[in-house]
Amino acid sequence: MIRVLFACRPQIFEVPGGDTVQLLKMQQYLKTSTDVDVTISPDPSAINRNNFDLVHAFNLFDIDSLEPQVAAAKQCGLPVLLTTNYWNPLEFFFETSHSLFHQIARSLLPHQFLFNRYCRQKRNRMQSELERQRKVLEAASLILPNSVGEGCELQRDFGLPSEKVSVVYNAVDFDDIAAADAESFTAEYGMKDFVLCVGRFEERKNQLGVIKALAGLNAPLVFIGGVPPYQRPYFEACQKAARRIPKVLFLAGLPQKSVFSAMKAAKAHVLGSWWENTGLVSLEAAVCGCNVVSTNRSPWQEYFADDAWIINPADPASIRQAVEAAVNSPVSNALAERIRERFTWSHAATDLAKAYQRILEKQI
Predict the structure, then answer these.
(1) Residue ranges of the alpha helices (H) in 76-222?
(2) Residue 99: its pLDDT value, please?
(3) Is 251 helix (H, G, I), strand (E, B) or coil?
(4) What is the pLDDT at residue 311?
(5) Which residues lie across from 56 on neighbouring strands?
(6) Are the beta carbons of 7 and 47 closer than 8 angstroms?
């Protein structure tokens, strides 16, 4: 039996997201499919050599939580594996900057010139954080990105050696989806064959850009997602912009079964984020029978191949064209079958267990 501590962000259950699903499903399938026992805790003091054989940490962006967790593991002599959930965030920072100077400059200067200058300045301001992230990556025995694309981002941004990277793909639980039905959502909300967007309301998810691009859309639009306190003004801006859409519904975070029911009742699912290291909800929506519209700021080729409509979050016309095409096209089972063959939690658990065993054998 391999004993693993999943070291996660403190709000993993209070502010749930795709990483919450990821941790719980990994824990469940490691327990049922492999000889691995998992404990989930954000507390560095829970890390000790008597109870665990290794530490599997998550989320390179939450460096304030990650740094003490990795330090505690190293102090105890425990190897660390890291699921980074990473994508280069500089374009997102550039496109969503609220600086008045930045907004004026965008109206006067060529886009690429301003973007390059912004990135140089932003990297300089982020040097301390980047160095902390680099040290955590160096301290880890193995890095477990969710795609080859994410691994390439890490290698480019941090000089990470390729031999330290082992891809573990994100996945879908088909049993959970099978338990949901479209009729329950339609009966409660009176909606069917709508455009759905699932995800926490935050600027990175770009719901506001999606809403503006879909002004006047004939198909109903449904948003499902919680609103973190610091994103309340952004959510209110989304509600205000949505007045230009004839029929739109905002729902707070629902239980997962209800989300799957909504996906089964929808015609298309759109994820217009500034970046996604997977886009777990897009995989789930495809299995539920939705046509999928996804951002190109992601490893979409690895997960979706040619079986989704891919948009540029910076281009409202591409969002609208893709959504309209998805709504007006018959649903294909090709993507769902691709996911069923390649992206299951059983596969992910097997890959994780092999990675754990490989690292422990090196420790002997």
Answers:
(1) 90-95, 100-108, 111-125, 127-139, 148-158, 174-178, 182-189, 207-213
(2) 77
(3) strand
(4) 97
(5) 6, 81
(6) yes
Write out pLDDT tens, residues 164-221.
Answer: 999 999 999 999 999 999 999 999 999 999 999 999 999 999 999 999 999 988 899 9
| Whole-angstrom distance, CA of residue 63 vs CA of residue 61 | 5
Mean pLDDT of the chain: 93
Instruction: Identify the structural domains of the chain with CATH numbers, from first to last.
Output: 2-97+104-171+344-363 (3.40.50.2000), 174-342 (3.40.50.2000)
Q: For a pLDDT cut of 70, what percent of the chain falls above it?
A: 99
Contact assessment for residue 246 and residue 173, using Cβ atoms and an 8 Å cutoff? no
Q: Directed axis angle between helix 100-108 and helix 111-125, to 10°?
A: 150
Determine how many CB atoms are found less than 10 A away from the CB of residue 312: 14
Whether pLDDT at 37 is above 70? yes
217 half-sphere exposure, CB direction, 13 A CA radius: 30
**3-state class (DSSP) for residue 215:** coil
295 burial type by CB count under 10 A (0-12 exposed, 13-18 middle, 19+ buried): buried
In Å, how far are 147, 263, 302, 304, 328 from 337, measured between CA atoms?
19, 17, 14, 11, 21
Q: How many residues does the chain have?
A: 364
DSSP structure string for 264-325: HH-SEEEE--S--SS-HHHHHHHHTT-EEEEESSS-HHHHHTTSSEEE-TT-HHHHHHHHHH
Containing 359, the helix (H) or strand (E) segment is helix 345-363
User: What confidence score (pLDDT) does residue 364 get?
Assistant: 46
